[in-house]
Structures are given as structure tokens and as C-alpha cells.
Amino acid sequence: MSVSDGRWRAETLGHCLDKAAKRLTAAGIDSARLDARLLAARALGWDAGQVVARPDHTLTPEQGRILDALFGRREAREPMSIILGCVEFWSLDFTVTPDVLAPRPDSETLVEAVLAHVEDKDSTPTIVDFGTGSGCLLLALLHELSNARGVGVDISEAAIAVAEGNAQRLHLDGRARFQVSDWDAQVEGQFDLVIANPPYIAESDFLDIAPEVARFEPRLALSGGMDGLDCYRALAPALNRRLASQGRAFVEIGADQAETVADVLGNAGLVVKTVHQDLAGRSRVIEAGLGDS
Ligand SMILES: C[S@@+](CC[C@H](N)C(=O)[O-])C[C@H]1O[C@@H](n2cnc3c(N)ncnc32)[C@H](O)[C@@H]1O
After folding, report:
1. Closest CA to 163 of 174, 155, 152
2. Is residue 7 part of a domain?
3. Domain co-membership, 26 together with 154
4. Separation of 182 CA from ligand 1 center, angstroms?
């Protein structure tokens, strides 16, 4: 688009994308061209392939204005997940708002670890997901385990509303329910599978994280207190209380937290079974039980 002097001058999509890529690169965004294409796809109602294939398309004034506004939001480092309002996780589409953490590809390690543990995919395990956020972990598991049922728990009412919407859109609401609770304070019973991806960023690390995360994602979903371990300390006794005797807990951790979180879980009476790595070989998930099971 070209509106610098207030008058519209016709511009092709290709030229507009070149300018946007420069603008986003200057703002420090590594994926500038890809982001520009995805935003163009959204503005035009096209798929990404059409955006690449039609650089000669002449933008209408309305299309130019919408694109300019989207590029402006991205230039201010608003995450793509919030601008687009959705993220793919485990090949499922999740609605994302500023009230929830956008599902991260690394968290698929937890889903894989749970599925590796559940030998019979037709079995009927019960699942509780502490800090469910968008509901991505619980809903990915319910998608794979068609006879499982689960509860997603979050202290944020707004997050619970997002998770409920995702369950409905994925047609999993018949087997998932969601509840507001401070960890297990309002939760009853024991579960075969207890999963959690708690906030684990240490306060001192906030200075180093990307503006997309620090400025736009909910602090409640990120901050693990001074040393990043506050939520594990609060959660560990809850894992113990909510695990069925032969059950398994799967807890996501930061890349350098395997030893410290294992200690916290051990102090709460849990026995670490395995530490699972993500695709980059970083420790990502601790699997624990109550004893020799
Ligand atoms: C790192 S996010 C994880 C979201 C989602 N499970 C995922 O993996 O993308 C942590 C979640 O824990 C929730 N949370 C923080 N403190 C909590 C508490 N005391 N009780 C329950 N949930 C809490 C936050 O609201 C946030 O949704």
C-alpha cells in the first residue's frame, strides 16, 4: 500500500510484501517474510500458497489498509498467535487470546510422553491437567485416546473460557470439563494421568525473553517466581494427592530445571521414572509416580 501523503496509489501484493518484510526485519523479527505472507493470507482471505503465487495482484484500498494495520501490529512485536487468534498444536487448531499462553511446539513432548506410557489406546484413563490454559495438552490427549476423560484446571477464569471454547470446536467437550481452581484446591478424586505445564520462568530471565512473550503473553502463565520453581513447589503435593496409586504424572520443565524439579517432586514423595527430551535433545518433561509402579 502507498498512502504516505494521504492519497491511495495502487500497489501490487509483491511490492507490498517486500516493504513489509523490510519493516518487520527492522523491528527485529527473524521470520519477517513468512509472517508478512501469513498476515497477507489472513487479510485477503487466501491460503499461503495463493499469496506466493500472485505477487502481481493489485491491492484494493481496503485490502491495503487492512494489511497495513496487521503489519503495524506485528512490527510492535505482537505475537502472530494473538494477531491471527489461533495456533496449531498436535495438528489441531486452538483459539488463542491474550488470556492464555499460545501452545508451544516443545509441549508436544509431554503429549508424546503420555502416549508412550499408555499402551492400550482404547483404555479409559482419567486425566487432570493443572494450568490448562488453552486446554491444548488435555485436548490433544483426548483426541488420541478416544475413551479417556479429563478435567482441565486453571486459576484464570478467562483461560477456562478459552479452553471450553476449544473443547467445543474440537468436539471433545463430551469428555472434557474445565474448572477454575488454585491447583487442586477445588479438585476432587484421583486420576490415572496427572499432567501440568506450570509457569517456570525465573523473574531474572524476563529481561532476556522475546518482546512477544514478555509484553503480550499473560504473566500469570509465565512467572515461576524468583527462581522459577514456585509453581512446582505448590504443585508437587497436589500431584501426590491427585495421582491414583498406579498413576503417572507428567510435568513440563524448563531446559535447565530437570535436577531442581526432580528434587522438588522427590520432597513431595514422588518417584521420578524418566526425564523426556524434546526434539533438540533438551530435558523437557519429568515423568513421575508414587512408588515402584
Ligand atoms: C505455562 S501455562 C500452560 C498452559 C497450557 N497448559 C500449555 O501447555 O500451553 C501455565 C498455566 O498455569 C495457570 N496457573 C498459574 N497459576 C495457577 C494456579 N495457582 N492454579 C492453577 N493454574 C495456574 C496459568 O493461568 C496458565 O494458564
Report:
1. 152
2. no
3. no
4. 10
Domains held by the chain: number: 2
For residue 19, the enclosing domain spans 13-76
Task: Please give the distance, rounded to the nearest whole angstrom, from the Cα atom of residue 196 to the centre of ligand 1.
Answer: 8
pTM summary value: 0.94
Residues 6+ apart with CB under 8 A from 104: none
Residues 154 and 216 in one domain: yes
Beta strands 271-277 and 126-130 are unpaired
Does ligand 1 come within 6 angstroms of the Cβ of 132? yes
Mutation pick for ligand 1 pocket among 219, 223, 231, 242 (CB with most ligand atoms within 8 Å)? 231
In this structure, are residues 218 and 98 in contact, taking their beta carbons and an 8 Å threshold?
A: yes
Going from the C-alpha of 217 to that of each of 80, 127, 197, the distances in angstroms are 12, 26, 15
The pLDDT tens digits for 184-211 are 999 999 999 999 999 999 999 998 999 9
Q: How far is the CA of 38 from the centre of ligand 1 (A)?
A: 28
In degrees and rounded to multiples of 5, residue 178 shows phi and psi of: -130, 145
Q: Are residues 280 and 207 in the same domain?
A: yes
Residue nearest to atom 14 of ligand 1 (CA): 131
The string of pLDDT tens digits covering residues 43-55 is 999 999 999 999 9
DSSP-derived 3-state class of residue 161: helix
Residue 2 resides in a domain: no
239 with 180, same domain: the answer is yes
Distance CA(70)–CA(82), nearest Å, equals 11
